[in-house]
Design brief:
Radius of gyration: 21 Å
Bound molecules: flavin-adenine dinucleotide
Shape: globular
Structural class: alpha+beta
CATH class of the domain at 71-180: Alpha Beta
CATH topology of the domain at 71-180: Uridine Diphospho-n-acetylenolpyruvylglucosamine Reductase, domain 3
Largest sheet: 8 strands, antiparallel
Strand content: 15-25%
Strand order of the largest sheet: 16-13-15-14-18-19-17-20
Helix content: 25-40%
CATH architecture of the domain at 71-180: 2-Layer Sandwich
Length: 438
């Protein structure tokens, strides 16, 4: 076995690549791909390992693009960005140039390519997932060819490449549409489930970014609301850091450990954290608002369902949790996203709601997540590609109208499956029907 070890953040994917390669230039990436093709090797690309699934796992070649980062240039309000760029670093670099991304997820440690390639999203019904911010993609396919695609150029390849799970080739560059930099006012509001649900549609429309966390075994939610403000951006300073990062994360970590050691305390802990949920307001530059520090590690499943089914699905999840009494203390995160036309985007063709279920690292999660998935499936749920799910090629094919079109492009770009690993083969290739035999 190789001495190299790579693992993801949640440690749900641990692999031993034959070689970990850190290219500095696009030419090096092309050379690696051509050499791999000549020697029948496989390649996976790692972002920052924040997917929970086995997307990155390989025992062959692993490309890590840590040295392939930064902004290449700015054209008007668009930025050309190298694919290995870390989202936090990108946010600060765009800020220095007077720009910002229109929306982000709730962490900023991913690589831009990793986040875009799995359909990573934030919240806000005016905004699609991060892949909708992409105007142009350049990637290197399995023949070592440099492909550039956009709405206008190689349109079908573009629709496949926007969310591709790294299956078409190695993305080297994105052109991202940005906005002039802006300040957001973030409010955390404690509320009841009943009031939250009765004002949900109003809140989704009224606020730029609206989401809420539901605390299992309670009637409590914490709403997170952001809107653009003319107010001055105030950086939190040491006190804010102490409260948000040290105290909140520290206390939650402590509760989580108690839960792990005494699982039957989980329900009481969920009630306690619901009670302790605070209210706060702060104004900060947008790229510093979206992300939250995550010291407490967990495993996660997140599903996209059509927005109109949200309330029914939410109440069914809540009831199932109460009836089953899982050892669970993590809140359910609920977000809302605009539909898009990206072939493998979970929000393809529909305005969507996302519900995310977490379990503390080290605690059994399979029964809980499988039960939740059964409910999501009733509502035409599509899984987040980076988060745990138990779908098969057949079930996924039913969910994605452009499934076969995606795979036609994939086979054109990668005829011998150089970019497939065991996980991708498992979710892409329906051996029974032999529809997609390699
Ligand atoms: C604590 C935490 C919070 C999260 N919050 C959110 C959230 O708010 N919203 C949300 O939607 N998701 C969220 N996620 C999921 C996360 O955004 C995705 O799983 C994302 O893909 C992780 O990015 P990464 O850089 O770590 O990529 P990795 O997980 O390393 O890779 C993801 C995929 O991208 C491919 N890839 C990476 N770089 C390239 C490249 N250059 N060319 C081709 N393929 C490439 C990889 O091969 C792999 O298939 C969260 C995850 C965690 C652990």
């Amino acid at each position: 076995m190789s001495q190299n070890t790579w693992k993801n953040w949640a440690e749900t994917c641990v692999c031993h690549p034959e070689q970990i390669i850190l290219p500095h230039t696009e030419e090096e990436i092309i050379e690696v791909i051509k050499a791999a093709a000549a020697h029948g090797k496989k390649i996976r690309v790692a972002g920052n390992g924040h997917s929970f699934t086995q997307l990155v796992g390989t025992d062959s070649l692993l490309l890590a693009l840590d040295h392939w980062n930064g902004i290449v240039d700015i054209e008007g309000q668009s930025a050309r960005v190298r694919s290995g760029t870390n989202i936090k670093v990108l946010g600060e670099s765009l800020y220095e140039k007077g720009l910002a991304q229109e929306n982000l997820g709730d962490i900023d440690v991913q690589s831009i390519a990793g986040a875009i390639s799995t359909g990573t999203h934030g919240t806000g019904i005016q905004f699609g997932n991060l892949a909708t911010q992409v105007e142009e993609i350049t990637f290197i396919n399995a023949r070592g060819e440099r492909i550039t695609c956009s709405e206008a150029q190689n349109h079908d390849i573009f629709k496949a490449a926007q969310v591709s799970l790294g299956a078409l080739g190695v993305i080297t560059e994105f052109k991202l549409k940005c906005l002039p930099k802006y300040v957001l006012q973030l409010r955390n509001v404690k509320n009841t489930v009943k009031d939250c649900m009765s004002r949900l549609e109003e809140n989704k429309k009224q606020h730029r970014n609206y989401e809420f966390y539901y605390f299992p075994y309670t009637e409590t939610v914490q709403e997170k609301i952001s809107n653009v403000t003319d107010g001055e951006a105030k950086e939190g300073g040491m006190l804010q850091y102490l409260n948000d990062i040290i105290l909140e994360n520290g206390a939650f970590k402590l509760f989580s450990e108690v839960s792990r050691i005494f699982p039957s305390s989980s329900r009481a802990i969920s009630k306690l954290t619901g009670k302790a949920a605070g209210e706060s307001v702060r104004n900060t530059w947008s790229h510093r608002v979206y992300a939250t520090a995550r010291w407490v590690r967990f495993t996660e499943m997140e599903y996209n369902i059509p927005a109109e089914h949200f309330e029914e699905c939410f109440y069914e999840i809540k009831k199932k949790i109460e009836d089953t009494q899982y050892d669970l203390h993590f809140p359910i995160e609920c977000r809302f996203v605009k539909g898009d036309d990206i072939w493998l985007s979970p929000a393809y063709g529909r305005d969507s709601a996302y519900l995310a279920c977490h379990m503390y690292k080290g605690m059994p999660y399979e029964k809980y997540l499988r039960d939740m998935e059964t409910i999501f499936k009733k509502y035409e749920g599509r899984p987040h590609w980076g988060k745990l799910h138990y779908q098969t090629p057949d079930s996924l094919r039913q969910l994605y109208p452009k499934w076969d079109d995606f795979h036609a492009i994939r086979k054109e770009m990668d005829p011998n499956g150089m970019f497939l690993n065991a996980h991708l083969s498992q979710i892409f290739i329906d051996e029974k029907k032999a529809v997609l035999t390699e």
